[in-house]
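Record type: ASSEMBLY
Status: queued
Input:
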Amino acid sequence: MNNPQLNKHGELQHLLSTEGLPVRIMRDILDRASTFLDEANGGEFKKVPLLHGKSVFNVFFENSTRTRTTFEIAAKKLSADVVNLNIGSSSTSKGETLLDTVDNLCAMHADMFVVRHSSSGAAHLIARHVAPDIHVINAGDGRHAHPTQALLDMYTIRHYKKEFHNLRVAIVGDILHSRVARSQIHALTTLGVPEVRVIAPKTLLPSHVEKLGVQVYHDMTQGLRDVDVVMTLRLQNERMQGALLPSAQEFFKYYGLTQERLALARPDAIVMHPGPMNRGVEIDSSVADGPQAVILPQVTFGVAVRMAVMSTLAGNTP
Amino acid sequence: MNIHIKNGRLIDPKNRIDTHQDVYIANRRIVAIGKAPQDFIAEQLIDASGLIVMPGLVDVAARLREPGYEYRATLESEMNAAVAGGVTSLACPPDTDPPLDEPGLVEMLKRRARVLNQARVFPIGALTYGLKGLELTEMIELTDAGCKAFSQADEPLTDTRVLMRAMQYAATFGYRVWLRPQDSFLARNGVAHDGEVATRLGLPPIPVVAETIALTTALQLARETGVMLHICRISSAAGVELLRAAKREGLQVTCDVSMNHVHLTEMDIGFFDANCHLMPPLRSQRDRAGLLAGLLDGTIDAICSNHSPVDDDAKQLPFADAEAGATGLELLLPLVLKWAEQESVPLLDALARITISPAQLLGQQMGHLSVGAHADICIFDPQTNWRVAPAALKSQGKNTPFNGYEMQGRVRYTLLDGQMVYESQS
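Status: finished
Output:
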């Protein structure tokens, strides 16, 4: 099967998923991201002209503040022209199809699309549809993938832990509905993390999750033991309606990340969260604000990683 | 017209005939096999050298999209597709708009089909009004209008009391009930088999238990009511196992499978190929093996196309938003031939699954080449290789998971009631 993310030279044409993303490309993106962070200058982003004259369209069929903003900052730091579209509230509600919307934006000479959509596979569909000189970045599709989030998580892990090959990583919470978790799992296993654990009740795990190369835990005390990285996930409120969980309170009681539970992990373990956090549901405030949390640096690194992804794509021709 | 089909290899599964014999047709019927009747003068000679002469195909599931969905397909386009695929009889599910729940609708459909005179159309009536699962339809009236069985198509019937009464009522008059087993709660919002691929792609899943639970319920109620039950589009190995046990027990139950599930699995979804968004969903390789075993031992009676033309607008969407279904009438024969070759099934047995077996499911005297039978005949070239190209399909639905596949075996002539209704250009 052709890898729809790569061009015929094996270079990145679109970023759709961390699954099947070659490790060399992943490492290149992380390396490149570090060049955009001016560590000497308090972690400021360097402004570079790599996307000068290019138009980046942030097309969000599903609401987002953080991801869209970080993409916007990243594109502007690369000197691109940025257009933000919240389609959730315009075209499709007027009956326009997804691909009609995309065609219209192509006619406005878009060079790059950053797409978020509530259906799995939307970014693949768009990537298949657009002209070969247009690049598509998946900013989240349904439950499927959120590759830039996973890459910024990998950047964060590498920043604090230096290596991947000696780590134990636990992902906690609603794996079933999480595109972040799927992308994290593929990125971690690709980069050589020997032990990836998922911790959740059976109702929040996909049926064949072990096929993704993870170890399954239902119990926090066992699952968190001796891990180097704890990746928490956002729990959506609507999960209570689908009979997946009795209450947020009970979830927190058994699966919330508290100081006591975190103490089971390695003393130097880091705590991550893709945001936005539900304090007191998946994570206790004392942990979120504590010394082991790297949640805000994740956001900063996210801009650099998105700069790296965009500039990598812009440098590759079909 | 008197027709002489000459030098062909005659395969008639019902009569267990596989031999080189000529066929003679007069007054729309087969009048002789092998030797010409006295005084027979052929007005038309069909040279079937190198070709296989078989009964016209009987397809138990072909959506013609009329009434209500003419933008997807029309009777004209789909009947053209049928005869191009050698299909001379087809059963259409009741999920039209409005559904086939009124005798007038059924009569209109039959009349429209008769005028086109390409394939015989056997409507399956709605089991409940509007397919809503609440009130029984007038089954006697619908039968008089031409319905051959009653079904919910893909619509759920969650109220088991209604289901039981529908079966009781149908059993009273000896009518057949056709059900596609799927628990609507477990399948809610689902678009793909609950397996490795749905896990990886983040697609809302439909577990196998959605099929087995509904199937168990249907079998229990059939046992209770004595209805003639037909299970449509079985998709899982566990489902086949339940049916095997039910048949062994002596229950009056039959079963079909779609050609898509004979050949494809969840893996074919690849990177969200919406052409593989089908209902029931494509399942695992293990399930496919179970279906193949079920075909071999006769647990599964018939193979159907599950022809469901979908327009491009409804397919060019993210996988879950795309409409389920694929075109199929023109691919049924080559895909059955492909299955026969891959599984080393003798042609006589393989072709039974698309002729005499489905004819029996419809309770019709057809699907065979006995002397005296209506001359519904398919003549195909077993050696012709061709590649599936959507634009070349006669069906208005161009979407198929087999797009680009190499096929072997192509229909050359189709006869309906002794009249040539299709002749290939090549």
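Annotation: The CA atoms of residues 212 and 239 of chain B lie 5 Å apart.
Annotation: Chain B has a mean pLDDT of 97.
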